[in-house]
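User: Structure with zinc ion, C-alpha cells only please.
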Amino acid sequence: MVIYMKYELVAGLETHIELSTKTKLFCGCTTEFGGEQNAHCCPICIGLPGTLPKINGAAIDYTIMAGLATNCEISLYSRMDRKNYVYPDLPKAYQVSQFDFPLCKNGFIELSSGKKIRINRIHLEEDAGKLVHKNGDVYVDYNRGCIPLIEVVTEPDFRSADEILEYIEKLRLTIKNIGVSDCKMQEGSMRCDVNISVRPFGAEKFGTRTEIKNMNSITFIGKAIEYEYARQCELLDEGGKVVQETLHYIESENITTSARDKEDAQDYRYFPEPDIVPIVTTAKRVEELRQSLPENPFVRMVRFESDYGIAAEDAKIIVRYKLIADFFEDSVKNIKSPRNAANLIISSLFRRMPTETEKEDFSYRIDAAHFNELLTLLDEGKLSANQAKTLFEKMLDENKSPHAYLTEADLTAPDDGEIEKLCRDAVDNNQKSVEDYKAGKDKALQVLVGYVMKATKGKCDGALVKETILKMIS
Ligand SMILES: [Zn+2]
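Assistant:
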C-alpha cells in the first residue's frame, strides 16, 4: 500500500451474509443458488398486495448464533422495520430490515495483533433481487429476493487494508464454522461495503467518507481500498475536497466511479413493519443456542497445537476447513503421534482437493476409522513413513482399510532377537561410524540406526534400535 505520510486511513465495513436457511425469510420458497430466473418466487416474496409475510424462525436463530460467535450482546426484544426506497430489484418498494432494534449489538472480532475491531450491530433483513444486463436491456431476477441476510456493521476501527482483509477472513471462517452461511464470496453470499475516509495523522476529527459498495472478492477489496485511499490523499493534497458519495469499484480498470448520491438515514423513512410482530427471545433460548455452537476455529487451532502437538502452521491450515478438522480429530483417537495424521492430510489429501470449495465441502470418501488403523500401524512401528504414504494414497483411491493391502508378512515386525542381530551387523559393517561416534560425532550414530531401519523397511522401533546399538558400542 502506498503510504501517504500525512494521512491516516479510517475505514469501517458492512458485510452482508446470506443465511443458509432452506427457505426464504417470509415464505416457503427455496433459497437455492441459481435456477431458472424468477422460478424461486411466490406472491409473498415479490410482495403482491394482500399477501402476508411470516418470519422464518431459523433465520432468527442463525442471526443470534452469528451474534454469539462474534461476541455480541443479544437483544431479547427486537423488531423488523420497513426501509423505503424505489429500485427495480425491490418489487415492494421497501425492504424489510431492522433499524433501531437489531438482534445483536456491541460485539467484536480480535485481530492477530490483539486489536479488537468493534461490531456495532448485526441485523436481519431480506435480500433484494438481481438486475441482469443483457444486449443493452436490463432484466430482473427475483430468485434472490427475500433470502435472509445478515448485515454485520463495524465501527470505523480499521487503519489499513491489511486489517480489513484479516477481519473479513476471520469473520468468514467464524460464520462458516457455525454453519449459518456458506459464505461463498464468489457466489455473492458474502459481500462487503467499505466506508473510507482519511485524516491527517494525529487528528481526531474524521474526514468526509465515501462508500464502495458490493464487493465480493478479497483481492479486489484490497485493491479498491488502496485505490480509494490514494485518490482521497491526492485530492486533499491538491487542495480539493472529498465528496460524500457511493462508489462502485470497476475491477477491470482498478478505479472507483460515482454510483448514486448517498442517502441519509431519514431518506429511507424507516418505520416498524406492521405485518410482523416484534421478535421476543428468552435468555434461556439464547443460552441453548450458545451451547449449540461448535468450537471457534481460532480456539480450536490453539488446542490442536497443545492437544496433538502439531505445528502451528499445520493446525492453521487444517482448522480452516471444519469438516477436515473434524476428520482429523476423529482419526487421531488413541493415536500416539497425531503429527503423522497432519502430515498425511496436508501432503496427500489436500493435493487431491486443489480448490477451496473442494476442501470446504470435503466430499472425499475416506473413513476416519480406516485412517485410524493406518495411524495405529505407524505408531506401532509396523510401517515406515514412506510405506504409510503409499498406502494412504491407495486408501484414498478406494476407501478401504489399510489391512486390505497388507499381508501378514508385511505386518510382522522383527522380534528382539532379529533386531539384536541386525544391530550387530550394523556395528560390524560400519566401523568408521562407530569410531566417529566414539570420537564425539553424535551424528554418526544415525548411520548405524539407519542401517537397521533400512534392513527392516522401517518396521521396528527406532528408539529400541538406538538403545541396543549404544549398549554394543559403549
Ligand atoms: Zn416466495
